[in-house]
Design brief:
The structure is a single chain. With 925 residues, the chain is of the alpha/beta class. The chain contains 31 helices and 35 strands. The two termini are 58 Å apart. The model is unreliable at 412-438 and 579-584 (pLDDT under 50). InterPro entries: Acyl_CoA_acyltransferase (IPR016181), GH (IPR017853), Glyco_hydro_3_C_sf (IPR036881), Glyco_hydro_3_N (IPR001764), Glyco_hydro_3_N_sf (IPR036962), GNAT_dom (IPR000182), NagZ_Beta-hexosaminidase (IPR050226). It comes from Talaromyces rugulosus. One of its GO terms (biological process) is peptidoglycan turnover.
């Protein structure tokens, strides 16, 4: 509430009212007590943090929040309270309600799905549920990068150890929250991803990385979230000790808050301190002094979780700091303006006093339940199954017994932000017994029952502890036919690691009644951190679920018994660090010989088409893969039967010198010889060859020239998931994939341009012309250099050489003739048509529009793009064509406008790229 001239409204002249807006406070209990009432009424506290101890159910939560808002209104608060909550999903949810609140995977579980869109959908659904009960501020997303994955308390609460991947998912989660109407709070700045624990549990953990090291890795997600509109940032209470920085508590440091966060990262939103009730701070500084230090450092909101005397000490400390001049009124006004601006974006009295409650939640329930199932089903990751033990139905007879061994673990934490790090520091933390999903023992017991129901056979279930393998365990192992061992953060609970290795050793040394040695099947399941056995090949069958909520374990049951094919992939560098030669067989890979192999490749393509699931190959022949261009270095490979000359596999690869892009254009394996590592062998040979090209800057999966596979085919969801996982295991970062598609417009004979499009084209101050031939090459090639897309330059050169069957439409500025945009057009007699199989697939006389390039300086990008494509359609129609193909369309941004013009999707793909450094590091490893 502020006048338009930027001055403060007179209602804020009261210093106590101002300061009350600069605190976030919590309380104990599930009902309003006198202490929180007094903080709101007498001290004007404007922000409340709720945690699991406050929340019994969705219905009770709605009533509690409504009562808090009513108290604030009746006490004369000019604006509603901010009601904040942790709801990170996985095992970290403050609000749990079996009926109304859905369970979703942890941050790392979502990253394992490889879908940024799913991350956004889940975040939006989570925020919608919180908004329905009256919450308007979610304490997330978690933006920490696990730069040290070992023994770090955050675990699956982060997306992983890759800064770019954490950044991508963090931004999508943030946008999902905001779309649902909540404001966001990134955490835990500057990073909780690599903490060192020194001294006692009460001591503050330390960040030893330098600011330069943090900037290159840990700060990347925070920087990108800020640039994408993050509302608030929580600064942690950790210490920092490295060259150039020596900080006792980050949230009390001007160097960290005002210098690093405000000035260097240019964050203009609300800064929230870590809870100042931390033991080390109260002993070393005192809460009153700490509050003043936090405000001077640049924090806007001071967090105090639940101790009423300490909360009063903080309030009095800030007031004393203002009175004695340590904190200026101007400084208070700055923070107040930020807080009020944030409140204006997410709440009003109408919203605060009229939450949707359980009625709204009931309407969401069907779609959110479906989303939860889809998310968990997509996250389960099969890291290894070297002996093909899955599904268990193929190794267990109905009358044979299965043994389930689970650790005795504490309940899943319902983490309020005040305990987000401190509660996790201890080796045996005192988890809140009112946790979200009950004790781990209860969850595992239900998991055992689900296994028994699913297989209609006997499942023996017992737990294990730090006492290790006991005689009862050995007896049960001898008795059963297969064993499933569950671990939960064995890197921090080392007894689990030792127990699992011991069980594995026992199972590898079994003897039959006849005295023959054999290996009893063992499946190891990590239900929290995937790092437990990710790099241990001795564990032959290893599955990750990323949390041990009941919903996650239900998906696991489906995987174990073959009702669900696991499609998740280990997130971050842990996936890419898997050796490229994981395959069990190494096939002889030979270079392509056209004279020898062309006929055999055509036969292989026929076999794939007969298989019925490769629509993108409908009109492809062996010649479709051969560019024969001086500007492109081609290297194609085959696995073949040297006796029969039949091809078992084919891989095409290209190096486009104009952009420094190395491309895997296709990997094709004979249908009856899949899962024999032929694809692995072809892929490894192609990557090794491409790495030796001079000037390689990046790698790409999918090629616009030739336009056979633009990336991973996505028409079949099951096949898409399988291929995404396969390529992820080879090292491709599928989490950063880009949707692309080929679209078609037909019939042209009756097509009419959308109303208004022709008029906008006529009124635009742009000149268009159509040119043919190499005499126009200089200006066009100079313009096309502004595009870094693979194959675009080569398509333009083919068009310039291909008159009269191909030409270029230019959009020029009238005053100086500068080219603002261009597009290639061609007919089915053009050389370009040979590399666009979709044109033949249309089975009519057709033509194509390809490779629009818009100058970076153009403001009206979409208008110019539509204008070029419209003119391209008209020109193709003039040639007598009845269909037009537009290849390699950006599925994220352009398709809506094309759909309005009448285009329909022909084939869809996911283009995947990565930098060359990544592959070089993997090869070196």
């Amino acid at each position: 509430m502020a006048p338009k001239d930027g001055t403060m409204h007179p209602i804020w002249d009261n210093i106590d009212r101002q300061m009350g807006q600069l605190f976030m406070m919590g309380f104990d209990g599930t009902t309003v007590d006198q202490q929180i009432r007094s903080l709101i009424e007498d001290y004007h506290v404007g922000n409340i943090l709720l945690n699991a101890k406050n929340l019994k159910s969705a219905e009770e939560t709605t009533k509690l929040i409504l009562e808090l808002q009513t108290i604030a209104r009746d006490a004369g608060h000019p604006v509603p309270l901010m009601i904040a909550l942790d709801q990170e999903n996985g095992g970290v949810n403050s609000l749990f309600d079996e009926i109304y609140i859905r369970q979703f995977p942890s941050a790392m579980g979502i990253a394992a799905t490889g879908s940024k869109q799913l991350a956004r959908e889940v975040a939006s659904a989570t925020a919608q549920e919180l908004k329905a009960v009256g919450v308007n501020w979610i304490m997330g997303p978690v933006l920490d990068v696990l730069t040290n994955v070992r023994n770090q308390p955050l675990g699956v609460r982060t997306s992983g150890d890759d800064p770019q991947e954490v950044s991508q998912y963090g931004v999508e989660v943030m946008k999902g929250y905001q779309e649902a109407g909540l404001v966001t709070c990134g955490k835990h700045f500057p990073s909780y991803g690599n903490l060192e624990f020194i001294g006692s549990e009460a001591d503050v953990p330390v960040i030893k990385e330098s600011l330069e090291q943090l900037s290159l890795s840990a700060l990347v997600p925070f920087r990108n979230a800020i640039s994408n509109g993050l509302d608030a940032m929580m600064v942690g209470g950790v210490a920092m000790s490295s060259a150039g920085v020596n900080v006792m508590h980050a949230c009390l440091s001007e160097q960290v808050v005002d210098g690093l966060l405000r000035k260097d990262l240019k964050f203009g939103g609300v800064v929230v301190s870590e809870c100042l009730e931390m033991e080390a701070l109260t002993h070393n500084i005192g809460v009153g002094g700490g509050t003043v230090m936090a405000m001077k450092a640049g924090c806007d909101l001071i967090l105090l979780c639940r101790s009423y005397p300490i909360q009063l000490e903080a309030l009095n400390g800030l007031k004393l700091g203002v009175e004695n001049g340590m904190i200026s009124r101007t400084r208070i006004h700055q923070s107040l303006k930020r807080v009020l601006a944030m409140k204006s974006r997410c709440t009003s009295w109408e919203q605060a006093l009229g939450p949707g409650g359980t009625n709204t939640l009931s309407m969401m329930q069907p779609s959110h339940t479906s989303l939860s199932t889809r998310a968990y089903d997509s996250s389960i990751t099969l890291v290894r199954d070297t002996q093909t033990l899955l599904p268990l139905t193929q190794i267990l007879e109905p009358d044979e017994e299965l043994l389930l061994l689970t650790p005795l673990v504490k309940p899943l934490p319902a983490s309020a932000v005040s305990r987000s790090i401190l509660d996790n520091m201890a080796t045996s933390p005192d988890w809140d017994k009112s946790s979200t999903a009950g004790s781990g023992e209860n969850v595992f017991r239900e998991f055992g029952r689900s296994l028994a129901r699913q297989r209609s056979g006997r499942v023996l279930h017992t737990s294990y502890t730090s006492t290790g393998v006991r005689p009862i365990h050995e007896s049960l192992i001898d008795r059963v036919s297969a064993v499933v061992v569950v671990t939960a953060d064995s890197n921090r609970n080392l007894y689990q690691h030792g127990f699992t290795k011991h069980v594995s050793m026992i199972c590898k040394s079994q003897y039959s009644q006849t005295g023959e040695r054999y290996e009893k099947p063992v499946v190891v399941v990590s239900v929290s951190s995937p790092y437990d056995f990710a790099t241990d090949p001795a564990i032959g069958t290893y599955i990750c679920t990323y949390d041990f909520t009941e919903t996650a374990l239900q998906a696991l049951v489906k995987v174990l018994f073959g009702d669900l094919s696991p499609t998740g992939a280990l997130p971050g560098t842990i996936s890419r660090s898997q050796k490229l030669n994981q395959s069990r067989q190494h096939w002889l890979v030979e270079s392509w010989n056209e004279e020898r192999d062309a006929e055999a490749l055509d036969a292989l393509l026929d076999a794939l088409r007969e298989n019925g699931s490769h629509g993108e190959l409908a009109s492809v022949s062996s010649s479709s893969f051969l560019l024969r261009s001086d500007d492109v270095e081609e290297a194609h490979f085959v696995v073949r039967n040297s006796t029969t000359h039949a091809l078992y596999g084919f891989c095409s690869s290209y190096f486009f010198r104009s952009t420094g892009t190395a491309v895997i254009g296709s990997i094709i394996v004979e249908p009856t010889r899949r899962k024999l590592s032929i694809g692995h062998s072809l892929h490894n040979r192609a990557i090794q060859t491409l790495l030796h090209r001079t000037g390689v800057r990046r790698f790409q999966l999918g090629s616009r020239l030739p336009s056979v596979y633009l990336g991973i085919p996505t028409a079949n969801p099951v096949e898409r998931k399988r291929l995404r996982q396969w390529f992820a295991q080879l090292g491709w970062n599928t989490a950063l994939s880009r949707p692309v598609c080929t679209v078609m417009l037909r019939p042209l004979s009756t097509w009419v341009a959308p109303e208004g499009l022709t008029k906008s084209l006529q009124t635009a101050e742009i000149d268009y012309d159509l040119v043919y031939g190499w005499e126009y090459a200089d200006s066009i090639i100079d313009h096309v250099k502004t595009s870094s897309r693979q194959g675009v330059m080569e398509i333009y050169k083919l068009a310039l050489n291909g008159a009269p069957h191909s030409g270029i439409i230019r959009a020029k500025r009238p005053d100086d003739g500068a080219i603002l945009g261009s597009v290639v057009i061609y007919n089915n007699q053009s050389v370009i048509a040979e590399y666009v199989p979709a044109l033949k697939e249309a089975n009519v006389v057709g033509g194509g529009v390809s490779s629009p390039v818009i100058s970076p300086s153009v403001g009206e990008y979409a208008t110019l793009m539509q204008g070029l494509i419209l003119l391209g359609i008209r020109q193709v129609r003039k040639s007598g064509a009845d269909a037009v193909i537009l290849d390699c369309v950006d599925g994220d941004g352009n398709f809506d406008s094309l759909s309005a013009m009448g285009f329909s999707v022909l084939h869809t793909f996911e283009e995947v790229t990565c930098d060359a450094t990544t592959w070089k590091m993997m090869q070196a490893a």
